[in-house]
Amino acid sequence: MFLADGWQDYEIIDAGGGDKLERWGKVTLLRPDPQAVWPMRENGRSVDARYIRSETGGGHWDYRRELPESWRISYRDLSFTVRPTGFKHTGLFPEQAVNWDYMRGMVRNYKNGDPNRQFRVLNLFAYTGGATCALAAEGAEVVHVDAAKGMVQWAKNNLDACGLSDRPVRFIVDDCMKFVQRELRRGRKYEGILMDPPSYGRGPTGEMWHIETGLYPLVEACAGLLSDEAAFFLINSYTTGLAPAVLTDVLSVALEDRGGHVESDEVGLPITRGNLVLPCGATGRWERG
């Protein structure tokens, strides 16, 4: 398992009964998590806010005390703005820190002490920019693409919170496949590509996305954007039932002419209670041999 165990400002205090009890800085939140099917020991603990699902879909936050609209937490040299949203999320997926560390290491090794050696990364379905900030901090040039204008603005704010607003990052609001197709026509190349596609969604002009039918064509198209010296291609997925082996197969088939190495596994977060680990989706990684 790829375990995100480097956090100081975030922890899962306990999980169980379909919930997880988290600490985000000094704020404790109780949120649903369908993977936590065992009993929770800490369910009597006071929390600052709890997300309650509605029987008709969606849900709402039950605030036990007044909280700021948003606050910041840090990971290593990075700083992110988090806030409870109407869909139970906070604007950050802490388990992705293990992938941030991996990609930063790939950039560092590629540059090998030469700050002028260019490393270009395409970040698709880039959300609020956790990976974008991590890569920019390591000296990569990043193209950040997401279909939601509000998420792109949040990512810009995160980049500024990290003190990286002067770094070479382009923010694009667009359908990911359409953007990739345009990049292919332009002849653009990247040393790294990552994507975090949803199970389903809509582009900015109503384009439909279903991961079962859209993932491989997108990965295959992205393969044409990799430079001859490309270092990595990373796919993250939260889709239930999409096993890590599927990501291995997708990357292996799409990049079979490039050789290299593919590794896929679950992504997880440690739970402070005992030696438990909460699974949080899967990640597949191709890297040049």
Low-confidence stretches: none
- Tell me the radius of gyration: 19 Å
Strand content of the residues, in percent?
A: 25-35%
Helix-residue proportion: 10-25%
Q: Structural class, from secondary structure content?
A: alpha/beta
Overall spatial form: globular
Mean pLDDT: 95
| Alpha-carbon distance between the two ends | 22 Å
Strand runs, count: 17
Q: Widest sheet: strand order?
A: 1-16-17-15-12-9-10-11
Biggest sheet statistics: 8 strands, mixed
User: What order do the SSEs take from the amino end to the carboxyl end, as H and E?
Assistant: EEEEEEEEHEHEHEHEEEHEHEE
Task: Jot down its keywords.
alpha/beta; single chain; 289 residues; 25% helix; five-stranded mixed beta sheet
Give a description of the structure:
- The chain has 289 residues and is α/β, with parallel strands linked by helices.
- The chain has six helices and 17 strands.
- The strands form four sheets. The protein has an eight-stranded mixed sheet, sandwiched between helices. Strands 2-3-4-5-6 form a five-stranded mixed sheet, with no helix packed on it.
- A hairpin with a 2-residue loop joins strand 2 and strand 3.
- Helix 1 (97-111) packs parallel to helix 2.
- The longest helix has 15 residues, at 97-111.
- The two termini are 22 Å apart.
- The mean pLDDT is 95.
